[in-house]
């Protein structure tokens, strides 16, 4: 058996055996080195691990994770919900509309789908259940809406994509993700609103409308956070990594002095939580460096890319096949693992067919977003079903509805690349 097969089969076997992704990548990479390279190449394990994480832009990942945790604990989600309720007013499907809007706004602070899902589910699920929405529907809708965090800047996944793919401007990626993220949210709203009206969930008289002026004032600090991040990037005031620092500082000010729901003791605990989450992410990135180096040295990625290119001369057909493969991977793996495993293979394919790397990155992100609420793994759905205290199996029917809806949004971005590329082009970024 060739070293390539040893490495790939080792990785798949370890995953099936339940070994964590990070260690599966490292052990599979080591297997490839042992079977296909001189034994002294094992000495590169430490260097490759260090080189994978010794990159300045990666500093933004733990900082944006911390930002999401701070805003979640600062009571921002509850204030956004009240403001969204004041905007929409009492109507059939009003709370469904509120859930989608709040998830999208929260995504503009945290950049993380699971964090977004947890914060919004804690606030929205009791109100939606009281208004007559079935818990499986509510949990699935919030999980699907929270997946837009992977598109709406700042996105942790897009930060990693900009590092993995050479020459891609992170600012262009952030700008490119905005309209597809909004489109995905609108695509989820259509079936949610239609189902709410059809089943007569949430009678208008059962929901009280908060005063608009007061709720707007309370939500203003939260609404200003995305403006601060994106405005600072556009003006050149700070780089994406510095934007993450500014977001953390702003979140601390909001939590300690404006909402006053955050104490110094809470802040210390949040530092610990963010460190644990970031440690897991960085461990995956570090150990994936072994797999990536081994695959490059053995020529595994090049051979796989050539095999994919050889499947068809039709770029559109291959794009569909790649999107289906990424969707399947998204149902089993997290976004970071998918980028680290698949991009070394997909970059040559992307270059062969001349696909725009910014547009292609957004398509991948939309696919991974769909995977975040598609069983069997569905990390966002796991969070919301835990909050709702229901079984994951109860959500499968509703999840299928929202998968089709967001799939329609993905198809539009694939057919009309300008949906993603227009804004970064107008802002003068390199696309």
Automatic annotation (TrEMBL):
Alphabetized, the UniProt keywords read: Cell inner membrane, Cell membrane, Membrane, Transmembrane, Transmembrane helix, Transport
**Keyword Membrane listed:** yes
Asked if the record carries the keyword Amino-acid biosynthesis, the reply is: no
Q: What is the topology of this protein in the membrane according to its UniProt annotation?
A: Multi-pass membrane protein
Instruction: Tell me the compartments it is located in.
Output: Cell inner membrane
UniProt domain TRAP C4-dicarboxylate transport system permease DctM subunit: residue ranges: 9-419
- Segments spanning the bilayer are 54-71, 92-111, 140-164, 170-195, 243-262, 274-296, 316-341, 353-375, 395-416
Tell me the InterPro entries matching this sequence.
Answer: DctM, TRAP_DctM
Q: What is its main location?
A: membrane
Q: How does it assemble?
A: The complex comprises the extracytoplasmic solute receptor protein and the two transmembrane proteins.
The UniProt family comment states: Belongs to the TRAP transporter large permease family.
NCBIfam families in the record: dctM (TIGR00786)
Which purpose does this protein serve, as stated in its record?
Part of the tripartite ATP-independent periplasmic (TRAP) transport system.
What name does UniProt use for this protein?
TRAP transporter large permease protein
Give the organism the record lists.
Answer: Litchfieldella rifensis
Q: What is the lineage of its organism?
A: Bacteria, Pseudomonadati, Pseudomonadota, Gammaproteobacteria, Oceanospirillales
């Amino acid at each position: 058996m060739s070293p390539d097969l040893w490495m790939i089969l080792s990785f798949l076997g370890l995953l099936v055996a339940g070994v964590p992704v990070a260690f599966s990548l490292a052990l599979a990479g080591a297997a490839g080195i042992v079977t296909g390279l001189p034994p002294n190449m094992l000495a590169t394990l430490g260097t490759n691990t260090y080189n994978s994480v010794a990159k300045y832009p990666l500093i933004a990942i733990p900082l944006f994770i911390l930002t999401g945790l701070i805003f979640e604990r600062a009571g921002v989600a509850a204030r956004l919900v009240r403001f969204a309720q004041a905007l929409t007013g009492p109507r059939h499907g009003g709370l469904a509309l509120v859930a989608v809007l709040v998830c999208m706004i929260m995504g503009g602070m945290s950049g993380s789908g699971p964090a977004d899902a947890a914060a919004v589910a804690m606030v929205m699920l009791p109100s939606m259940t009281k208004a007559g929405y079935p818990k499986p529907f509510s949990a699935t809708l919030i999980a699907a809406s929270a997946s837009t965090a992977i598109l709406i800047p700042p996105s942790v996944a897009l930060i990693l994509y900009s590092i993995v793919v050479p020459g891609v401007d992170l600012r262009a990626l952030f700008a490119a993700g905005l309209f597809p993220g909004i489109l995905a949210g609108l695509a989820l709203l259509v079936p949610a609103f239609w189902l709410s009206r059809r089943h007569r969930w949430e009678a208008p008289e059962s929901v009280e409308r908060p005063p608009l002026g007061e709720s707007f004032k309370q939500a203003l600090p939260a609404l200003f956070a995305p403006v601060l991040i994106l405005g600072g990037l556009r003006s050149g005031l700070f780089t994406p990594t510095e934007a993450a620092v500014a977001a953390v500082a702003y979140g601390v000010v909001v939590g300690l002095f404006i909402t006053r729901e955050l104490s110094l003791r809470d802040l210390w605990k949040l530092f610990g939580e963010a460190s644990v989450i970031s440690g897991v992410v960085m461990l995956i990135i570090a150990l994936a460096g072994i797999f990536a180096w081994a695959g490059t040295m053995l020529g595994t990625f090049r051979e796989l890319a050539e095999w994919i290119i050889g499947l068809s001369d039709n770029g559109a057909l291959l794009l569909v096949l790649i999107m289906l493969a990424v969707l399947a991977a998204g149902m089993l793996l997290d976004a970071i693992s998918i980028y680290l495993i698949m991009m070394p293979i997909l970059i040559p394919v992307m270059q062969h067919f001349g696909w725009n790397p910014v547009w292609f990155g957004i398509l991948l992100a939309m696919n991974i977003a769909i995977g975040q609420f598609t069983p069997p793994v569905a990390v966002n759905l796991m969070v919301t079903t835990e909050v709702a205290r229901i079984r994951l199996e109860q959500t499968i029917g509703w999840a299928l509805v929202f998968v089709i809806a967001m799939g329609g949004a993905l198809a539009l971005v694939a057919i009309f690349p300008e949906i993603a590329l227009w804004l970064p082009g107008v802002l003068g970024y390199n696309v």
